[in-house]
Every structure is written in C-alpha cells, then in structure tokens.
C-alpha cells in the first residue's frame, strides 16, 4: 500500500531536548507527531499532559496525533483540542460502549479527527459498527503503557477485518514494536499509518528509518 503515514512517537525522544528531537523527525520526513498521553490508571505509566502538548504545538510543523491512553477521555477532549491536537484517539476499553458514539461526536465538534484504539485482547468485531463515523482506528500490537515492547504479530490479523468493513477513507494505524519488517506485516494487511518510537529515535539514520516505514 502506498502513502503510508509515518507518525514517530515522541515517547522515545529525549525530553530534555524535545524541540531538537521533534525537529529531527520533521526534517527526516515524518508526517505526524504521535503524542502518547498516559494517566497512570488506564495504563501503568504517566507521560504527557495538556500543557506539554500546547508547547509542542507552538513548534511543530506537522499535525499532532494525540493518543489518549486515559480513563474518562471525554473529560479531556476539549483541553487537548484547544492545546492543538489534530487527531484525538481514545480507547474503546476506556469508555462505556453506549457512549462511544457521543465521544466521537464530541471530538469532531472541535474540528479534530476522531480515532478509536483497541488493545491486544480486544476483538476487532467490537468496533465495526463505529467505523463509518471514525477518521482513524489504532490497533495496538503491544500492551499500551511503555515503549520498546516486542511486536505481537497475532494482533496484526485484526487489520484485514477492520479494513474489509471500513470506509475507504479510514486511516488504519498500528502502534507497538514497529520497524521496517513488522511495519510491512501491517501494511500488507491493510494498515496505512505506522507509529514508531525506538525504531526511529534510536536509529543512527533517522531519515532512513522514516523512509523505510513509508516504503514498508
């Protein structure tokens, strides 16, 4: 599949030199910046919040792809939208299923693209009814919470199911253990957006790493 959207995860950046590391991936051709928001409740880690996102927006030249790995995401949609998020993705597992449609509408009311993510143990069939209303689906191929985990290949088998039931315009994104090889596993199954942290930021040639994902 052509036109792969590469979204480097700044979770793997040097936070003491965040502006420098953002510029590195932008200059290397990154399409988006993936911002992992974790609250220490939905996942066992705490990362970036609204103020840091707003600061990133001031310097970023590419869209902010904000992944809310938090409980009660509906409480934080407006603050993150106002902070400059271009895409807001929340978790199926974090919201009562009867309220998911409402949260999608809430995100779109701010002119922001709406994404829905599923964890490794969640069946893709659970979200099929929401696909016509979404801009993006994010399939996690690791348990969310920490960077540097190994790719779970069985999770990639969800991708053809989602792609077969989704509008053509849906962005199908994958996050977790992504590199040039695992990225190809995902794009061959219908993904058209890849999130990578360590593979890009730990690479001796960041531009080559970004390019390798776009060609995956």
Average pLDDT level: 95
Work out the count of structural domains: 1
From the alpha-carbon coordinates, what is the Rg to the nearest angstrom? 16 Å
Largest sheet, strands/sense/barrel: 8 strands, parallel
Proportion of helical residues: 25-40%
Strand line-up of the largest beta sheet: 1-8-7-6-5-4-3-2
Please name the CATH topology.
TIM Barrel
Distance between the termini: 8 Å
CATH superfamily: Aldolase class I
Which regions have little confidence, pLDDT < 50, spanning 5+ residues? none
How many H/I helices? 8
Describe the structure.
The protein is an alpha/beta fold and 216 residues long. It contains 8 helices and 8 strands. It has one domain: Aldolase class I (TIM Barrel, Alpha-Beta Barrel), CATH 3.20.20. The chain has an 8-stranded parallel beta sheet.
Topology (SSEs and partners):
Layout: E1 5-8, H1 18-27, E2 33-38, H2 50-59, E3 64-69, H3 77-83, E4 87-91, H4 100-108, E5 113-118, E6 136-140, H5 158-165, E7 171-175, H6 180-187, E8 193-196, H7 198-201, H8 206-214
Parallel strand pairs: 1-8, 2-3, 3-4, 4-5, 5-6, 6-7, 7-8
Task: Pick out its properties.
216 residues; alpha/beta; TIM Barrel; eight-stranded parallel sheet; 8 strands; globular
Compact summary:
This protein has 216 residues and is α/β, with parallel strands linked by helices. The protein is built from eight helices and eight strands; from the N terminus they run E-H-E-H-E-H-E-H-E-E-H-E-H-E-H-H.
């Amino acid at each position: 599949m052509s036109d792969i959207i590469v979204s480097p995860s700044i979770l793997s950046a040097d936070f003491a030199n965040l502006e420098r590391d953002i510029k590195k991936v932008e200059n290397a051709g990154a399409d988006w910046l993936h911002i992992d928001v974790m609250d220490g409740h939905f996942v066992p880690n705490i990362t970036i919040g609204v103020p840091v996102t707003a600061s990133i927006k001031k310097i970023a030249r590419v869209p902010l792809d904000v992944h809310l790995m938090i409980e009660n995401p509906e409480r934080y949609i407006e603050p993150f939208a106002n902070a400059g998020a271009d895409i807001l993705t929340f978790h199926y597992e974090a919201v009562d299923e009867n309220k998911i449609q409402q949260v999608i509408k809430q995100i779109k009311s701010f002119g922001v693209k709406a994404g829905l993510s599923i964890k490794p143990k969640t069946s893709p069939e659970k979200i099929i009814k929401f696909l016509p209303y979404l801009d993006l689906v994010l399939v996690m191929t690791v348990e969310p919470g920490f960077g540097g985990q190994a790719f779970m290949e069985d999770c990639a088998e969800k991708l053809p199911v989602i792609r077969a039931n989704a509008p053509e315009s849906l962005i199908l994104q994958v996050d977790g253990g992504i590199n040039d090889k695992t990225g190809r596993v995902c794009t061959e199954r219908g993904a058209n957006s890849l999130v990578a942290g360590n593979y890009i930021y730990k690479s001796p040639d960041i531009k080559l790493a970004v390019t390798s994902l776009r060609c995956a």
